[in-house]
Amino acid sequence: MMSLKTAVIYNSCNNRWKSCTNFTCPSGTLQIEPPPHLEDNTTTIIAGGMPVLHNQILFEHPLNERTRTLLRISHLFEQFEFHLAGSSQWQSRAALQALLDISSILARADIKKDMLKQLEQQQKSLTSISSNPKVDQVRLHQVLDDIAKMIDRLYSSGRQLGGALRKNDFLKSISQRAPIPGGSYEFDLPQFHYWLNLPHTERVMQLDDWRHEISTVQETTELLLGLLRSGSVFQQQTALKGLYQQNLDAKREVQLIQVKVDAASLLYAEISGSKHRFAIRFLESNQGEHPGQSEQDVPFQLKTCAI
Fold first, then answer.
1. Which of 27, 228, 303, 307 is most exposed, with the fewest beta carbons within 10 Å of its own?
2. The last residue of a domain, from among 223, 249, 268
């Protein structure tokens, strides 16, 4: 049985708050409602990105390559959004580099095929509970409609996502110099130097146009990670002498591990695992020294996220 808990999500693309799925399958409720307010102890999840917790640190670890790629893409889009809001040349540089990094990922992996597969899995899972009288049919159909639209957009997109960015000669010249330390200085890339000296509004418009080329990737990533992260609820656990291990149910495809630990503990979680089992070690953060595993029992919260 899979249960989903409502999570408060902030979509940085349209500056709106929304919440994600809350349902239990095959029997239970589905509620997708905007939060009435945010409180100090609210878990705030940037759509498709890393949750930001108050007085707690959240660690995430993917258990397959598909989820690992989604997390990396989401991370880079968050960087892009942050630097796009800035007015300096350095922030325009950083925003553009984030787009180039996303484009590089899209060139190496069959992202389109993987995204379509995951969307269709979600569509099948949600459709299976549509006859349940406890399900909020309006909310359910809203989510199914969003998934269907994303599937149509992906099918109608080009053969390679982000292909237009990789064919752009200006962007290619920057991408080729990026791996070289200091390789994007003005004497190496005078056209880039010229672009950086354009008015801020023009740079932002151009960056937003380039982002639009891969907007389907961004929105699909947000949707998939939002649903995945809401795929279960946190459970209180204890790591005996800093170590916790758990075998996974083969019938439930866990794709992401989330761990919340109090920031005051001065510990960080090192997570490793596969589709069969995972382990969490809580280590003492000693900058400059080899980290040691805690010798104390460590209370923490655990969520195993599955589609």
1. 27
2. 223
User: Which residues are 243's β-sheet partners?
Assistant: 240, 281
Spatial separation of the C-alpha atoms in residues 291 and 61, rounded to whole Å: 19
- Residue 243 dihedral angles phi and psi, to the nearest 5°: -130, 135
Amino acid at 275: K
Nearest partner of 307 among 128, 77, 90, judged by Cα: 128
For range 173-189, the mean pLDDT: 90
Asked if residue 161 is part of any domain, the answer here is yes
Percent share of the chain, pLDDT over 70: 82
For 252-262, the pLDDT digits (tens) are: 889 999 999 99
275-304 residue pLDDT tens: 899 999 999 987 777 889 999 999 999 999
Query: 182 or 37: whose pLDDT is higher?
Result: 182
Residue 241: which residues within 8 A CB-CB, separation 6 or more?
293, 294, 295, 296, 297
Do 113 and 69 form a contact (C-beta atoms < 8 A)? no
CATH classification at residue 106 = 1.10.3900.10
Q: What is the CA radius of gyration of the chain?
A: 21
